[in-house]
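Message: A physicist's question: would you kindly supply an amino acid chain plus fold tokens?
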Amino acid sequence: MKNMNKIKYLYVLIALAAALPVAAQSSAKFPTKPVRIIVAFPPGSSTDIVARVVGERLSEIWGQNVIIDNRPGASGNIGTQVALRANPDGHTLFMNSSAIAVNVSLYSKPGYAMKDIVPILQGPTTPNLITVHPSLPAKTLQELIELAKSKPLSYGSSGTGTTPHLDMELLFKTLAKVDITHVPYSPAAAATAVVANQVPVGSTSMPPAVPHVKSGRLRAIAVTTAKRSAVLPEVPTVAESGFPGFDDYTWFSVFAPAGIPAAVVNQINRDFTAGLQSPAAKERLAALSLEFTPNTPAEFAKRLRNEVEKYAQMVKQSGARVD
């Protein structure tokens, strides 16, 4: 009997010993070194602003340096391609805008497939904002459309494949039946191009344009979301301006290459959420009309699938193509 008890005890010890590596692995500390966040747009873009705001908080949470690595080009495709070649251990993440969901339909070869990407968190969202140079006589969206019918006009956007670009193509060319020439810029450059009157009309997310609107260097015409922005409450929506049901926005989110452990995904989600909800981050984001609602990786994955389908329809409706 005693021998039997010894054998059972020995089996228990063996089982515990076998479980130790698994337990150690599941409780392994993350991160163990600096974390690189590849931003698919240039400095000054809304994506970059969000990455830097949350990056400051994450450095405190993780006790590691957070390196913001801007890799702009091809409407976010270059940064995405670079990130997807990284080791999927969580120490290289990437931030992109809703352009990542647009480009798989807009480009015949975007250089990535959605199956290669792990969605971690849908970050802040913002309305897109249509602006004009103050010298332009149009003060409403309908006046701008009438002006575009009477003379050639061009608009600067945050870049080919961004939602500000797609919104203008759908709004003017498909819904209003008027041609307007697209001039792609980077997000911040698009706003300053209108300020300099290099192009008379602009379409960007709100953060690059809001300071110029408040200083009087730009005139805001309409926001693209169903509700007005609390930052510019006097600016009507596109839906209010003659296009009922029009509702679109830009979001900025964090992703990782496929193969990243689920436990690391969940931790990054929690830590990004904590960073975005810190008082300093909330104040900075709110001033730029950026709103964040916490969500899980599973919830974001579902939304992302819906966004890809929605933008595929918008690309088809607008007839927009890059290649």
